[in-house]
Amino acid sequence: MASIVKRKSKYSVVYDYTDENGKRRQRWETFSTNAEAKKRKKQIEYEQDSGTFFIPTAKTLNDLLDEYMSIYGVNTWAMSTYESRRGLARNYITPIIGDMLLSDITPRMMDKYYRDLLSVKTVSVNNRKPTSEYLTPHTVREIHKLLRSAFNQAVRWELISRNPVLNATLPKEEHKERDIWTAETLSKAMEVCDDPILSLALNLAFSCSLRIGEMLGLTWDCIDIAPQSIENGSAYIFVNKELQRVTRGALDDLSDKGVIKKFPPCIASTHTALVLKEPKTKTSIRRVYLPKTVAYMLVERKKEIDELMELFGDEYIDNNLVFCSSNGRPMESQVINRAFNKLIKENGLPHVVFHSLRHSSITYKLKLNGGDMKSVQGDSGHAQVKMVADVYSHIIDEDRCINAQRLEEAFYSSKTPDPVEDTEPKTADTAVTESDESDAAKILELLKNPETAALLKQLAKAL
């Protein structure tokens, strides 16, 4: 049996085992949250009861990564994270340093490995063209995060005495500003767009700050567009799932964790599957209120789908999706991206990616509400307000720059910065009267304070 022990802010799963020499030993495995520890405890107890339990005995880096992902990764990572890190290990760690013994891996060797990664060609994933020919500093840093966590686990398992990448030298990452459309450009794009599906996608992504997977995963049971709701401004969408294509290997490894629905494949031999899954973080689950214009667009879309259902009859596959093909099958992101790129090309619009509409949305809302990051976080689904601040604080800085310019124009650049005085001549009597009235007003104001009034009474008695 295993138990959970809380140590400061961490949770440790403690269990006994018999080593290869038949000696009874105790092991501690540490996790960040109680939920993660409970999952591992349950896994250990199940494997001990079924006779499938094993103690981590990794000798090479490949061994470590396999054990680390099967024990730690499957219990703590979302499916998209699991897939991404599996891909990093498969493409950039295993073929290069995977066969190295853990005992031979040194900090110096790992620094050289990180440096050499910048000259490694990027591997395409799911037949998508890489955005750069060689690995970027950002990807190298993602590989480092994976290895640092795996080596930390190896230290806890007593496979190595110290983490060889703890103080690694990493390539500098340059943060480029995202290219986004201004409100004027977006307005023009919406005006010239004659594709009703793309038009709805543009408006939803912008008005609701949606990720494309969240938008394509919208179902009608999570939308309130009742006439009364639209009229009183309370129409909304509820974001609680996303559409994503994942590998069947990841589905098997994670036992369909977080999957709400699996769609049947068009081609039986495909190694991937299209799924509706839970969002990556709890804060991504949110209600976003709709502008009336967008709510009415959804009303029209529902009418179109009802007509298609009537037209196709039993051949229509009703998945209850807002974005779907004419026969009801889910609509993948490349369909929207192709239509979006076509719109840009045909109308001479600045080239941006569809995801940038989410950034345009957040930018516009921050300017609209004077920098209220908490309310924008509610719409965007960021895990923390700090994430919004880190990425978008320059927008508020722009407004602060404008304030400085206005101060320069109104005060420093003005030829008469002092207040304009009343030029009407005053007589001595008038001046005295105004002075007396001013003094009387000040005394009355002082007497409103009980402590001041009591003090004045004491002074009067003393006099």
TrEMBL record:
<protein>
    <submittedName>
        <fullName>Site-specific tyrosine recombinase XerC</fullName>
    </submittedName>
</protein>
<feature type="domain" description="Core-binding (CB)">
    <location>
        <begin position="59"/>
        <end position="155"/>
    </location>
</feature>
<dbReference type="InterPro" id="IPR002104">
    <property type="entry name" value="Integrase_catalytic"/>
</dbReference>
<comment type="function">
    <text>Site-specific tyrosine recombinase, which acts by catalyzing the cutting and rejoining of the recombining DNA molecules.</text>
</comment>
<dbReference type="Pfam" id="PF00589">
    <property type="entry name" value="Phage_integrase"/>
</dbReference>
<feature type="domain" description="Tyr recombinase">
    <location>
        <begin position="176"/>
        <end position="406"/>
    </location>
</feature>
<dbReference type="InterPro" id="IPR013762">
    <property type="entry name" value="Integrase-like_cat_sf"/>
</dbReference>
<comment type="similarity">
    <text>Belongs to the 'phage' integrase family.</text>
</comment>
<feature type="region of interest" description="Disordered">
    <location>
        <begin position="413"/>
        <end position="435"/>
    </location>
</feature>
<dbReference type="InterPro" id="IPR050090">
    <property type="entry name" value="Tyrosine_recombinase_XerCD"/>
</dbReference>
<dbReference type="GO" id="GO:0015074">
    <property type="term" value="P:DNA integration"/>
</dbReference>
<keyword id="KW-0238">DNA-binding</keyword>
<dbReference type="GO" id="GO:0006310">
    <property type="term" value="P:DNA recombination"/>
</dbReference>
<dbReference type="Pfam" id="PF14659">
    <property type="entry name" value="Phage_int_SAM_3"/>
</dbReference>
<keyword id="KW-0229">DNA integration</keyword>
<dbReference type="InterPro" id="IPR044068">
    <property type="entry name" value="CB"/>
</dbReference>
<dbReference type="InterPro" id="IPR011010">
    <property type="entry name" value="DNA_brk_join_enz"/>
</dbReference>
<keyword id="KW-0233">DNA recombination</keyword>
<dbReference type="InterPro" id="IPR004107">
    <property type="entry name" value="Integrase_SAM-like_N"/>
</dbReference>
<dbReference type="GO" id="GO:0003677">
    <property type="term" value="F:DNA binding"/>
</dbReference>
<dbReference type="InterPro" id="IPR010998">
    <property type="entry name" value="Integrase_recombinase_N"/>
</dbReference>
